[in-house]
Amino acid sequence: MDCLEGMRQMADGSVDHCLTSPPYNFCLRVRGEDYTRRSKNEEFGHTGQKMNKYTNGLTDDLDMEDYFNWQCQCIDEMLRISKGVVFYNIQLITGNKVAVLQILGKYAANIREVLIWDKKTAEPAMHEGVLNSEYELIIAFDHGDCKGRQFRTANWERGTLSNVLRIGKNRENDHRAAFPLMLPRQLVHNFTNEGDTVCDPFMGSGTTAIACIKEKRHFVGFELNKEYYEKAVKRIEAEQSQLKLF
């Protein structure tokens, strides 16, 4: 189901943490001085892949203000339903750059830390004068006045964990935007406790769920795209079968 609809049915503080990566609004771009939309069948660079792979009518091309308002609603709900930290993975691209910068300003008092996901290899720029992109942001939203940077749950020794996570890109999943399993595993392992429940409102193909299973956490999530939902169910069932086998 739609994640906003789902989260609004959940009680305050009903999960321990949230960990997600929303759609990036990839199909909104700039041509000349104005925003425009990519065509449904436009290809991604020289890959031959379609820009928009959604099969259920989602276009990933909201107006910037609409994208900002939508994501603020999602962040507000994640903060409401979680007792702890909301980890929000996003990449600055043309289709969301202004909105993400506005989000950083709007929630400045609720940001505990901004982590960098260093993907080790860069995405080639699609246009002249544009830098290759090699990193993504992981914004850690928290409750209260986040003047300091200290996390309440910290499963690492002082001085041993960096706020730059150097993890190569996902190469094992046909969901192009899925993050690699090691990324949510590191976040779940270091910032949550065994038995905690983690919510992923944009579950996609289920990578956060797999990370939770491997790290002995519970999970709940939402996915509107039926194709990705079915892939997630198969991956989760396979992972649970492995646990029973061993």
Q: What do these coordinates show?
A:
The chain has 246 residues and is α/β, with parallel strands linked by helices. It has one domain: Vaccinia Virus protein VP39 (Rossmann fold, 3-Layer(aba) Sandwich), CATH 3.40.50. The protein is 29% helix and 20% strand. It has six helices and nine strands; from the N terminus they run αβββαβαβββαβαβα. It has helices at 3-7, 64-81, 97-106, 182-191, 207-214, 226-245, and strands at 17-20, 28-31, 34-37, 86-90, 111-123, 133-141, 164-166, 197-200, 218-221. The strands form two sheets. A seven-stranded mixed beta sheet has the order 7-5-6-4-1-8-9, sandwiched between helices. The two termini are 33 Å apart. The model has no long low-confidence stretch (mean pLDDT 90).
List the helices and strands and how they pair.
Blueprint: H1 3-7, E1 17-20, E2 28-31, E3 34-37, H2 64-81, E4 86-90, H3 97-106, E5 111-123, E6 133-141, E7 164-166, H4 182-191, E8 197-200, H5 207-214, E9 218-221, H6 226-245
Parallel strand pairs: 1-4, 1-8, 5-7, 8-9
Antiparallel strand pairs: 2-3, 4-6, 5-6
Helix pairs in contact: 2-3, 4-5, 5-6
